[in-house]
Amino acid sequence: MQRLLILGGTTEATALAQALPTDRWIGIVSLAGRTRQPLTIPAILRQGHFGGVDGFVNFLKAERINAVVDATHPFAAQISHQAAIATDQCQIPLLMLVRPPWEPQMGDRWLVVPDLAAAAARLPGLAQRIFLTTGRQSLASFSALKDQWFLMRMLEPPPPELPLPPGEVLCDRPPFTLTHELDLLQRYHIQALVTKNSGGTATCTKLAAARQHEIPVVIIERPALPEGDRVSTVAAALKWLDQQS
Ligand SMILES: NC(=O)c1ccc[n+]([C@@H]2O[C@H](COP(=O)([O-])OP(=O)(O)OC[C@H]3O[C@@H](n4cnc5c(N)ncnc54)[C@H](OP(=O)(O)O)[C@@H]3O)[C@@H](O)[C@H]2O)c1
Questions:
Q1: Rounded CA gap, 106 and 89, in Å?
Q2: CA of 183 to the centre of ligand 1 (A)
């Protein structure tokens, strides 16, 4: 049996763990440990940081890992770079499973920005009431904006000490239907959406809702990922695993 480390926290990671041929692979899914109630995953689960590249290397050796699939969120670039360095040091094959980014469609008003700071800088003069969907860890980047009102959606409530911009926190878990998103935009009189270009189907209805409401979308580009083997589907990842000796 071979031991596969899946860097998780995404639907793709869970789907891969579920589809793994159990006659050949033992799956170990690693989560950063940020979500207090992670989904049930059909694999051995470990939670918490590795402790940088050195900690990652120690884990690979201690757990006798034969291959790694990095199926983390496209914006979790730090762990992806650490995985690339650690697997290279240990001479272990690494595959990145990265879902395709969203592409603008006819009728979209996308304002593409490189990072959170640029997204915050784009808002004054653009809109007063904003739907902010960039996650808990990003709220501080918007906290200096006192003249805007934010509907801040995230999985779990932010820690009390975190500086927030004016507005309302909404804790909810995808997937979200188009009707749900259209209703939110209308109920809160939203004039602009801010999102990362996460890709995938679980949260893409907010883009369709923004299109229908003809409101601008400030969309944050993905950070650069390391060089190396990369696929965009679970099926392709399984094929790659099949080719590993
Ligand atoms: N929407 C989503 O589903 C989702 C999920 C995850 C992330 N994100 C977004 O991605 C961005 C960065 O997220 P992030 O902080 O999780 O990643 P990150 O910035 O790449 O990683 C930061 C540190 O967290 C630890 N870590 C991350 N993923 C891990 C894993 N799977 N197993 C063990 N340790 C892990 C590592 O700590 P050590 O160096 O100490 O080992 C890593 O250095 C955020 O903007 C976040 O909103 C979104």
A1: 46
A2: 31
Spacing, Cα 213 to ligand 1 middle (Å): 33
For residue 175, whether the previous peptide bond is cis, meaning omega lies within 30 degrees of 0, is yes
96 and 170 in a single domain? The answer is no
Q: How far does the centroid of ligand 1 lie from the alpha carbon of residue 43, in Å?
A: 20
Give the chain's domain count: 2
Atom index in ligand 1 nearest the CA of residue 8 equals 31
Counting as low any pLDDT under 70, the low residues of the chain are 36-39, 245
Domain that includes residue 115, residue range: 110-220
Radius of gyration for the chain, computed over Cα atoms and rounded to the nearest angstrom: 19
Q: DSSP for 91-147?
A: T--EEEE-PPPP---TT--EEEESSHHHHHHH-TTT-SEEEE-S-GGGGGGGTT--S
Same domain? For 215 and 228 the reply is: no
Query: Does residue 51's CB lie within 6 angstroms of at least one atom of ligand 1?
Result: yes
Looking at the domain assignment, is residue 105 inside a domain?
A: no
Per-residue pLDDT of 201-214, as tens digits, reads 999 999 999 999 99
pLDDT by residue (tens digit) across 47-67?
999 999 999 999 999 999 999
